[in-house]
Amino acid sequence: MQILTANINVEDDIKDRIFNEEFYPHAEALYNFAYSLTYNEPDASDLVQETYTKAFRFIDKYEQGSNPKAWLFKILKNAFINHYRKKAKGPVKVDIDEYSGYKDDDLGNKNAGYVDLRQEIFQNMMGDEVTAAVNGLPEDYRTVILLCDVEDFTYEEISKIIGAPIGTVRSRLHRARNLLKEKLLAYAKSIGFENKRK
Q: pTM value?
């Protein structure tokens, strides 16, 4: 009986080590990705929490030596899809706090204390114009460009995360980059870049 208990403790120690050393370091990247999907700080935090809860619960399915970041991103993406489906089936909810801020406009405190995190999420990585352009992309395109160009996942990893064939990943990425190029052309010209193709 003591041998069995010792084995369980060893397994728990291994699970704790995997969680702390391989999963936990990706918390910030997971949060950024969750926020790019939800545009809502509490929802993004909840999504990350759910991701880690599921990762810990199903840690036995994780293959050591594989890419833990890709595995976590896939869990997060699936959790987001499940939440989206639940919301689509449920009644429309209105947050009264969103509308209570309109009183401030009458007092001349327009947007007092308002912070648009969509513009700040990649503050240390991209300028405001690029952030706005990325945030303006349709979700499927925004997702692949963030996974590839910000998080450095391979096409194969992105394919597994979003559950689409590699050809679809390449196609969406190509289209996303073209859309970004169109959106950022005027900005590029304003800071001195020239369009060499004519």
A: 0.60
Contact 116, 127 (CB under 8 A): no
Residue with tokens 């704790």: 16
- State the DSSP string of the chain: -HHHHHHHHHHHHHHHHHIIIIIGGGHHHHHHHHHHHH--HHHHHHHHHHHHHHHHHTGGGS-TTS-HHHHHHHHHHHHHHHHHHHHHHSPP---HHHHHTHHHHHTT-TTTT---HHHHTTTTTS-HHHHHHHHTS-HHHHHHHIIIIIT---HHHHHHHHT--HHHHHHHHHHHHHHHHHHHHHHHHHTT------
Distance separating alpha carbons of residues 158 and 154, to the nearest angstrom: 6
Exposure letters 80-114 (e unless 16+ CB within 10 A, then b):
beebeeeeeeeeeeeeeeeeeeeeeeeeeeeeeee
Q: Which two tokens stand for residue 196?
A: 């060499």
User: What is the total residue count of the chain?
Assistant: 198
Tens digit of each residue's pLDDT (9 = 90 or more) over 42-90: 999 999 999 999 999 998 888 887 899 999 999 999 899 888 667 656 5
φ, ψ (nearest 5 deg) of residue 114? -80, 130
